[in-house]
Amino acid sequence: MKKTILLLAAFGLLITNANAQKADSVKAIVHYKFSHIRDTTNRDKPYTENMILFLGSQSSAYKSYDRKLQDAMMKKQVAQQVADQKGSGGPIRINVTSRVATTRTEFYQFPLEKKMVRKERLITPYLIEEPMPVINWKISNDTASFSGLHCQKAIGHYKGRDYTAWFCPDLPFHSGPWKLNGLPGLIVEAYDTNKEVVFKFDSMEEAVVTAKPAAEAPTGGPTIKMIGMDDNDDPNVITLPKDAVKTTEKEFKHLEEAMKKDPNAFAQSAMAGSGGGMRMGPGGGPGASGGGSKMDIRINGNGPVINNPLELPEKK
User: Fold this and answer.
1) Which of 21, 60, 271, 282 has its CA 20 to 30 A from that of 32?
2) What letter does residue 105 receive in the DSSP assignment?
3) In this structure, are residues 86 and 156 in contact, taking their beta carbons and an 8 Å threshold?
C-alpha cells in the first residue's frame, strides 16, 4: 500500500468547501518591496518583505513573494530527504530549515464585481469576502517615471492614513498593492504621509505561460502532502483556492482565539475533521510507521511589537 506523509507547514489543513471562482489568466506580474514601521519606538528597524501582484483582465492577487520562495525551498528539502531515506526500513525523519516569518494574508480583488476576498490561514485556509475598498483619489498633474513607466500622482485617504500613489495610465489595470485600487491605471508605487507604510516598485514582467510544476514524489515512494502550502497555486491563473472555507470576520476572530488558547487541540480537531492525520515517528519526527498521532505545536511569545498597525482608527 502506498504511504502518505502529511507535513504540518506553518499550520495548514485540507478541507474543500469554497465555491469555485472563475479563473482569470495572468497578464502581468509586479514585484514590490513592502516596508512598514510597526513599532514607532524602533523606527530604524521597519518590517520589510518582498511582495508580488498577479494581474488579470478582471482580477488581481497580492501575495508574499518571500513566502512563495520559502514554500518552494521546503518542498525541495522534504522531497530530497524522503528520497535519501527510501528503503531504509525505518520511520522517515524530516528536518527543514527554520522559516522566517512572512505575511500569510493574501488579497484577491475583483473590480468588476466590486468585491475583495481576503485569504487567511489557521491550519485551514479561510476566505473572507469584503466590499471593494472605495478610496476618494484626487489626481494631480504631477508626473514621475519608475523604471521607464510614465506615472501620474494621486492622493487619497484610507484606513487612517493619507496615501500618495503613482499610477501608470498606460497599464489598464485598476488594482494595486495590498487593498489599494480605483485609479485609471496600475498603482506602481504608494506610501503614506510619513512613509511609515511604503509599497516601493521593484520590477514588472509580462506573464509567460509555463507548465505547472508537478508534485515532487520519489517513484515508488510515499506521497508527500505539504499541509499549509498551496499545492493548487498556479502561476498562470488567478483563482480562489479550492481547498479553502468561506467564513466571516467575526467567525475568523473566534477561530484565532481558539488557536491561541490551545494550538495542539485546535490542530488535532481540524485534522480529524478533514479525515487526515499525522503519524509521528520515534523522537517526534513525522514518520510512515511507529509512534502515535501526537503533535506538539508551540506558539512562542506574543509576536512582534505592533503599536502602529497598517490600518489606523479614523480620527473623530
Assistant:
1) 21
2) -
3) no
Question: How far, in Å, CA of 77 to CA of 243, rounded?
Answer: 24
Confidence of residue 12 (pLDDT cuts 50, 70, 90): very low
Q: Dihedral, CA atoms, 46, 47, 52, 55, nearest 10 degrees?
A: -70
Which residue's C-alpha cell is 516601493? 200
Cβ contacts of residue 211 below 8 Å, gap of 6+? Answer: none
Distance CA 46, CA 195 (A): 11
Q: How many CB atoms lie within 10 A of CB 63?
A: 21
Q: Does residue 282 surpass a pLDDT of 60?
A: no
Residue 16 CA to residue 275 CA, distance in Å, equals 12
H or E segment at 236?
none
d(CA 26, CA 208): 9
pLDDT of residue 101: 81
C-alpha cell at 188: 506602481
Tens of pLDDT, residue by residue over 146-158, are 999 999 999 999 9
Q: What is the mean predicted confidence (pLDDT) over 169-190?
A: 96
Sign of torsion over alpha carbons 155, 156, 159, 162: positive
pTM over 0.90: no
Mean pLDDT, the chain, integer:
80
- As to burial, measured by CB atoms within 10 angstroms (0-12 exposed, 13-18 middle, 19+ buried), residue 139 is middle
Q: What is the CA angle 269-275-281, rounded to 5? A: 80
Find the distance separating the first CA and the last CA of the chain, reported in whole Å: 65
